[in-house]
Amino acid sequence: MPDEFQLMIKDKMNESNYHLLTDLMPQQVWTANPDGRINYVNKNTIEYFGRSFDEIIGNGWQEFIHPDDLFNCIEVWTRSLSTGEPYEIEFRLQAKDGVYYWHLGRATPAIKHSEIIQWFGTNTLIESHKQNEAKKDEFISMASHELKTPLTSLKGYLQILSMRVKSDAQNLNFVEKALMQITRLEGLTNNLLDVSKISADKLILNKTEFEFKDLITRCVDIVGHSQNTHTINIKANETIAFDGDLFRLEQVVINFLTNAIKYSPNAKEIIVSSTVQSDGIVVCVEDFGIGIEPEHLEKLFDRFYRIDNANSKFEGLGLGLYIASTIIKSHNGEFWIDSEVNKGSKFYFRLPLAENKSLEPETDSKTFYKDKRFEIDIHPANEILEISWIGYQDEESITTGTQQVMSFLRSNKFSKLLNDNSRILGNWSEASSVLTPEVHQELFASGLRYLAWVLPAHKFGQLAAFKALNNMDSSDSSAANNLITIEFFEGREEAENWLNSFN
Ligand code: ADP
């Protein structure tokens, strides 16, 4: 409850009642100053660590965190401190017996007159939950391995049988149906096996150089022949050599194609394209099916995530896209979706090609800058600096672009920025993590006061922009950070009008 209510409770209770209450709680309870230093821990915390109150408070608690969790923990805590957002993390804490046990750490800020005055936190023991998770992963791994061997031999026997009953149409029909079901079971088992490999960090890529065009043709052949409801048309298929895991990338394309068929029961066509754009291969699988509501888009690539489609008339485990996203990410690629409910969906992925030498930027360091990923211009009449991002972005391009913006703001003494994302392609949400509250502060220090942000056209790009702002922005609670007035727009003109309204 990040509001004045908690403080009111604390004010109303006398100090000893407050401590009695927290001492009775089964968790570790702690409070911290706005700068993050722990200033109180309850009895349970003292007992768990077997150290004195004074040894635990201050920054001493860091020494109890498992070295493998420390970096992430500090990063998440620092972020919460600067944004005022609730803190939540799973980490291991060393107990007085020397053993590390898993905890869920959570904290919310207490706010008075829009200022954080105190953080209230708890650490809850989740060791048995973690052990159960590990057992579940182990079970999935064991069960899928155990299922695989009998399935393979069953399939082999059925294939022999299908040859033996070739001339007996009725029996052949039964055997073929059995084979189809075995193939489905095999697909499910392979998915479970992959998920357990991913959990154990054992999804190893076997890279070779191959012709990407052949991969697309082969996947279309395989999926095309396995059904008779849809025609798969290849709209574009450029010839390009690619260095990657052929088998795994086929798995991604086959997953996109089978989903496209499965989720467009009333349509007849699927369109596939594979094109080379800005140093990368972009693959798109388009269907004219049920589509996806925007609120599901971001979560579709999570493990076991499925949309509850009309009482789940579509079968599946919700693993295909999760596995696909892991494969794409391990090739340093990205994925995104364009979709409209009842019209259809376009599933994309992009794989970067080996680094091309980036062109030298053209710039006079004050009035214009131009390279492959962004262009900067100034509008002296209304003192607006404009950055227009082009194509696919990564951490490097966003960092360089932001630094250039700062330098141009300073040399022109401008306070208004038009940040045009309408030409951004793909999903740049991971790259946007470079936009931190510190960058917000630096932009402010460079003179920026008004930022008009023109959104990308497609939904996934818009989600990336919101996420970027979230990373960079502070909540109202941290007034010192909340420095630049930022507004999103769908069109460039509205954005410019808005900036012009400030003098
Ligand atoms: P599965 O299809 O086995 O449930 P996936 O991970 O492949 O698992 O897909 C996850 C979810 O994404 C599906 O349950 C479905 O709700 C949604 N989905 C995937 N592809 C499409 C598509 N082409 N059109 C509409 N929804 C889709």
Q: Would you write up a description of this structure?
A:
The chain is α+β, with helices and mostly antiparallel strands and 503 residues long. The protein contains 15 helices and 19 strands. Strand 3 and strand 4 (100-112) form a beta hairpin. Helix 6 packs antiparallel against helix 7 and helix 7 (169-199) packs across helix 11. Residues 475-480 have low confidence and may be disordered. Adenosine-5'-diphosphate binds at residues 255, 259-260, 263, 287, 289-290, 292, 300, 305-307, 309, 316-322, 345.
| Rg calc | 28 Å
**Overall average residue pLDDT:** 88
Q: Terminal Cα separation, in Å? A: 39 Å
What sort of overall outline do the alpha carbons produce when their principal axes are compared? flat
Number of helices: 15
**How much beta, percentage-wise?**
15-25%
Helical residue percent band: 40-55%
Helix/strand structural class: alpha+beta
Main sheet overview: 7 strands, mixed
Side-by-side strand order of the widest sheet: 13-14-15-16-17-18-19
Give the low-pLDDT segments. Answer: 475-480
Count of extended strands: 19
Bound molecules: adenosine-5'-diphosphate
Distinctive features:
503 residues, alpha+beta, 5-stranded antiparallel sheet, 19 strands, 42% helix, binds adenosine-5'-diphosphate
What is the strand and helix layout of this fold?
Elements: H1 4-12, H2 15-24, E1 28-32, E2 38-41, H3 43-49, H4 53-56, H5 67-83, E3 87-94, E4 100-112, E5 115-125, H6 127-164, H7 169-199, E6 208-211, H8 212-225, E7 231-237, E8 241-244, H9 246-262, E9 269-277, E10 280-287, H10 294-297, H11 320-330, E11 334-340, E12 344-352, E13 362-363, E14 368-370, E15 374-379, E16 384-389, H12 395-412, E17 416-420, H13 437-445, E18 450-454, H14 459-472, E19 485-489, H15 492-500
